[in-house]
Design goal:
427 residues, 15 helices, globular
């Protein structure tokens, strides 16, 4: 398993670099207003992806080893079309803010949702490398096209990003289809379609309710900022600034995400829960150690450097980041807890945590954003992330008598971390 983590970490480092390049392009070269529009587009596509996962989503990692592939794919393809139509209808009635045309959004959401399904299928088959390469291909194509526009003097704006993102999604869509063809050929178990639908809905619905709540914990502030700040142009600028801060902050999760991808796949295929717990707690300690190191580094970087890299409009990134830091650290531990619960089929606990966080987000976020704008959004996010992690740990302790001492890194963890880093550089 740690070999797969090392490979995924190497891939995630590449993705992190690409994300920073894309962040530079969408901030320094495009400005805060365009960044705000782009953030709303990506958020709306994320909403479509989560709704399309009602019959699977991340729970496909758990379901794929246990049910026929043709049933799982057929169910998810049909639901993807319906969910993409539903979210497009929301846009048509202006329930979700967006400047993209309806036909373009439907096309993008259809591809985004299908690629997301294929990636979960690959994880369910423990094909971690193919899953990782799809992520790289998608972002690499977007960066390549935007760089092409810049080199040849084309305008870099929201429209150019929209086109580049469509090409990136299209490339990942075509390659993902080729990647899952062998998975269909090796499907096992003769289970009826009705039985598969029941299982997909049972696990998928539970997971996706939690994922919808968690997405809103991460991004509800975008919608609140868009509603509460006037005029609309200023709202887009503030969303752009806050979105850039979140991207810088969430870059610290690259290690945790590398770990969680492999952890979820491995724990889902383990029979011994206690062995899965032992591994998950070690990974939680590694996540916390790496994230804390990253927080320290980003905290000592002078504000002038952030301005140099991202532009004058984004000078508040550091002040926002310092507020977000405690929550970011807490979620690095939460990442391991969540994927352990998901891997052993206890999706309900993750859903409870996310719903609990969403209630806090609404209760605290609305007044905070109303009075303090993006600083209020950052404070709310940090509080919610911390509260969610505490909730998950309490539930973990109730079920497995886990102690706080198990969250403190030791010498063996450091040795394991250094080994992973060495292997990732060779991956």
């Amino acid at each position: 398993m740690f070999k797969s983590i090392a490979h995924t970490l190497g891939t995630r480092l590449v993705i992190a670099v690409f994300n920073l390049i894309l962040l530079f392009i969408t901030t320094k070269l495009m400005g805060a207003e365009n960044k705000g529009e782009i953030s709303l587009l990506v958020l709306n596509l994320s909403v479509a992806t989560i709704i399309s996962g009602l019959f699977g989503g991340p729970s496909l990692v758990y379901l794929v080893p246990r049910f026929p592939m043709k049933n799982i794919l057929g169910i998810n393809y049909v639901w993807t079309i319906l969910s993409s139509l539903a979210v497009t209808a929301f846009l048509s009635f202006e329930f979700l803010p967006s400047s993209i045309s309806l036909d373009k959004f439907f096309f993008l959401s259809l591809m985004e949702c299908t690629v997301a399904t294929h990636m979960m299928v690959l994880l369910g088959k423990e094909k971690v490398a193919q899953h990782n390469y799809l992520q790289i291909i998608k972002i690499a194509v977007v960066i390549a096209l935007l760089s092409y526009y810049k080199f040849y003097g084309e305008a870099l704006n929201y429209s150019s990003f929209e086109l580049a993102y469509a090409f990136g999604l299209g490339s990942a869509f075509l390659i993902s289809i080729l990647a899952i063809i062998p998975s269909q050929a090796t499907s096992q178990k003769a289970v009826s379609l009705i039985e598969t639908i029941r299982a997909c809905l049972k696990y998928g619905a539970t997971v996706q309710i939690g994922n919808i709540a968690q997405l809103l914990n991460y991004r509800l502030s975008f919608y609140l900022l868009e509603i509460m700040i006037l005029p609309p142009q200023l709202a887009l600028i503030r969303i752009g600034v806050y979105s850039a801060t979140l991207q810088v902050s969430e870059a610290l999760w690259q290690f945790a995400r590398s770990v969680s991808i492999v952890q979820y796949s491995a724990v889902s295929n383990m029979e011994d829960k206690l062995n899965g717990l032992k591994i998950s707690m070690q990974l939680a300690r590694l996540n916390g150690s790496v994230t804390m190191t990253g927080i320290i580094i980003l905290s000592v970087i002078p504000e002038s450097l952030y301005v140099l890299v991202f532009g004058q409009e984004f000078q508040e990134i550091k002040s926002h980041f310092l507020i977000l830091a405690p929550g970011i650290l807490a979620l690095s531990y939460s990442n391991a807890f969540s994927h352990f619960f998901a891997g052993i089929g206890l999706h309900r606990i993750n859903t409870e945590s996310s719903v609990f966080g969403l209630i806090l987000t609404v209760l605290v976020g609305i007044p905070s954003i109303s009075y303090f704008g993006t600083m209020g959004a950052a404070s709310t996010a940090s509080l919610v992330y911390f509260a969610q992690t505490i909730y998950q740990f309490v539930r973990l302790r109730q079920k497995f008598e886990t102690g706080l001492s198990e969250l403190i890194p030791d010498r063996d963890d450091l040795v394991q971390l250094l080994s992973l880093i060495r292997k990732s550089t060779k991956a």
